[in-house]
Amino acid sequence: MTPCPTITARNLDLTFETNDGPVHALKDVALDINKGDFVSFIGPSGCGKTTFLRCIAGLETPTAGEISVNGMSPEDARRARAYGYVFQAAGLYPWRTIGGNIRLPLEIMGFSKTEQTERMKRVMNLVDLDGFERKFPWQLSGGMQQRASIARALAFDADILLMDEPFGALDEIVRDHLNEQLLHLWAQTNKTIGFVTHSIPEAVYLSTKIVVMSPRPGRITDVIDSPLPRERPLEIRDSAAFIEIAQRVRDGLRAGHDDA
Amino acid sequence: MGCVQGMMMRKALQQSLVPVLAVIAVIVAIWYIACVPMNSAWTAQQLERSGGTMTVTEHIADTWSQERPRLPSPHQVGAELWKSTIAMKPSSKRSLIYHGKITLTATMLGFAIGTGLGILLAVGIVHSRAMDMSVMPWAIVSQTIPIIAIAPMIIVVLYSIGVQGTLPKAIISAYLSFFPVVVGMVKGLRSPDAMQLDLLQTYHASKSQSFWKLRLPASMPYLFTSLKIGVAASLVGAIVGELPTGAVRGLGARLLSGSYYGQTVQIWSALFAAALLAAALVAIISLIERIVLKRMGVAA
Fold first, then answer.
1. What is the model's pLDDT at position B4?
2. What number is the average pLDDT over the span B200-222?
3. Cβ–Cβ of B200/A108 closer than 8 Å?
4. CA distance B5 to chain A (A)
5. Per-residue pLDDT for A62 more than 50?
6. Fewer CB atoms near the end CB (10 Å): N or C, chain B?
7. Which candidate from A91, A96, A109 shows the least CB-CB separation from B195?
8. ipTM of this complex prediction, to 2 decimal places
9. Is B298 within 8 Å of A89 when comparing Cβ atoms?
10. What pairs with residue A40 in β-bridges?
């Protein structure tokens, strides 16, 4: 079986016009993401990793180059509700319960009431939040809120999940736990995941493909296909293979830093 | 738990009750003291005319109990308020309940028009750049014109096309109350941040879905703040609307007739009635606010 790319980008360029002059956010970015891949984007601030994710989501429009998502333009893919997006902050509506928040995309997309309830229950179970549907966001911890926001992105069952530093604001213990859960969830749902992060261990632990980026202008400096198996206990982080990949990511980040 | 809460409530009440009562006592004391110099000239004049004598105590007591003082004393206003609200039949032409109802009708109608108009304008301003640029400056300009200058014109213009009674007053009242609603709602409808709006974009939500599901609920706290200012402004508008026509009914009419006949006690009791009415209206809106926000899960 030849893997057909879910997301492809060719010669992607994006320049923001700001008051301080143009900012070259993305330069000549090319990448293929296959169905079922877990792809991490790692790099320092300003390397364009979030911008690239937003291009995939159709939230930013590239100045030049081609990008396609599920064989469509990102704009059409967004209209077709091809992906769920998880932001750095959970961004739950304080006036809705957790269940109500997860129903939000389903209401907008016109699912029936019974289907909304059924889907809401299913994704709450997926993120291990059973029984919290009547709670309000302020009654939950930061980690639980972020899990609810992942459930919200999963509720309408898009094939692609785009995550922009979803665990960036959480402490390391919660983060480890959520990373483990996320892998489990990925195995269960077989989604294609794009994941922006600052953390090398997080990127190596989660991904099948690690995209190393560097700033000014934002570009890809290395793409690493991980040899680690899909099944990954937390202890894998002490293995030689893991440390070797982490080393290569670190080298890539340093190289990008040097020529900037 | 309940016991602890009860104790805390009682403590909080005690802590706030003492200072509140102290402030009221100070105000009443200042008021009584102010009555003496304000009214003593009249007492002295009467004394001169009758040729009698008075001790200082009697002189001071007299300044607090004149029939038509320059500044009526607190107990005179209190007695007049009692007489014209509780003790009198509400249908009497001298009852403040009767006049209050008439002003309240115009206030509520004006408040409803003003709030509706304010919300509509805010929705337009938030969704259309052209409206933002064209409507907002006029809304601001409208509030720089003294209401006392524009009220007679509104009354006259409407009278010439056959509209009189409650509606002209309600329109003046709406003129004052729409503004805080526009300003508050524009801010409230714009309060969702970029991330919240991006999230709805990822769902490919329509503008009306963004409005009903995000912008409107997010604006609720702003709306209630505006409504509290708006309802007080509505009452002022309705009273001002009663002045230029020489109306015979309404709290404004009581103020006017009181000043025609030098009935200062009547003026002051009408003033207090208006203040109490405003306080009650604001309190009702605060109550609705608490209920709504609690149902929205905002308050703990």
1. 65
2. 94
3. yes
4. 20
5. yes
6. N
7. A91
8. 0.88
9. no
10. A195, A210
